[in-house]
Amino acid sequence: AGGGFQSEDSRPVWQVYEQEARLGSGAFGTVYRARERDSDREVALKQIFKSGEHAVQDDAVQEFMRCAQVAHPHVLRVYAFFNAADAVYIACELAANGELLDFLASHRELAGESSIAGIAAQVLAALVFLHGQGMVHHDVKPQNILVTDRQLAGNDRVPCVVLGDFGTARLCQRGALRQHGQGQSEIRGTPEYCGPEVFEGRSGDRTDVYAMGVTLFELLAG
Question: Which residues are recorded as binding ATP (predicted)?
Answer without folding.
Answer: 46, 93-95, 165
